[in-house]
Amino acid sequence: MKLREKINEILDKLSLDGILISDGYNMRYVSGFAGATGYLYITRERNVILTDFRYTIQAQMEAPDWEIVEVGGGKGYGEAVNELLLEDKIEAVGFEGKSTLYADYTKLKEDLKVKELVGIGEEITDLRRIKTPEELECSKKAEAIGDIAFSKILDVIKPGITELEVAAHLEFFMKTHGADNLSFDTIVASGANSAMCHAVPTNKKIEKGDFLTMDFGCKYNGYCSDMTRTIVVGKASDEQKKVYQTVLEAQLKALDFIRAGQKGKEVDQVARQHIYQAGYEGCFGHGLGHGTGLFIHENPRYSVVEESIVEAGMVMTVEPGIYIKDFGGVRIEDMVCVTEDGHINYTSSEKKLIEL
Known about the structure:
Elements: H1 3-13, E1 18-21, H2 24-31, E2 39-43, E3 47-52, H3 56-62, E4 67-71, H4 77-88, E5 92-95, H5 102-111, E6 116-119, H6 133-153, H7 163-175, E7 181-182, E8 187-190, E9 210-216, E10 218-220, E11 223-224, E12 227-233, H8 238-257, E13 262-263, H9 264-280, E14 289-291, E15 298-302, E16 309-310, E17 315-318, E18 321-324, E19 328-331, E20 334-339, E21 342-345
Parallel strand pairs: 1-5, 3-4, 5-6
Antiparallel strand pairs: 1-2, 2-3, 7-10, 8-9, 9-12, 10-11, 13-16, 14-15, 17-20, 18-19, 20-21
Helix pairs in contact: 6-7, 8-9
């Protein structure tokens, strides 16, 4: 079924005459327009992008089949939308309640002249869960750029280099090998800092014997990659080897288990149980993974509470970890496409413990 038909189904299901889309990722997904400001106005017969002067040329280029309404010159979004509502005789319009700030909602409610203003939850966002072949190819290419960056960073890392310098090199390698942008702020954490799951890179110098965790990703044609590798700078201790091997085994068990039709919590349990049975209960405090796409953290999740069924065509991360205060931490993350009978792993970087 085509995307436009799916949106019409949402209109029918919720008894709406039209929908306003304001979430930037949904705007891009539905129209192709990747500008930072605006609305999509959609009825059964009409597709309109409302944006200001800064983005009108971009909108025309990225969404050539859409009407473009320029907002500005004393006319705000409320007035511009109202003109469309009046012209199309719209009585019930939906808006993205889960991604709309309360202040924006109250402004819409005050400005829009409609009988009903209805929150549509994540109806549009949920359309993004299962990727098209084109989306899968973009995700795969983005992850391949991350693999290149990892292979190159191994020649840069040495005692004395700072976490911030490693992050800068990773970002440079990704952007010079085809990335549009970063998926998220790069995480580089060494030594005791690696016990923090989302550590921010610092001027700490990397020392011999440090765990070094690098979590990084980029965008290709708007689609995100996400991978994590942990290495040891110098010679690993026996305890470091044990922690690393436990995380690796947990990830491999989860990867072997993954296929379409499973609840997210079932996959999470496979990795979590292995880590806990190895004596590290309480040291794996985040979920096993999440969906990716135009946004780095999409639904569904692999987590202890995720009841949603993971379907074929979803792109998911698989990232178990162990984090021990004052000792350090290990996370190993791959990005996979779920299939009916397993998965396709988009990440090819080495996962055996690397000692530099």
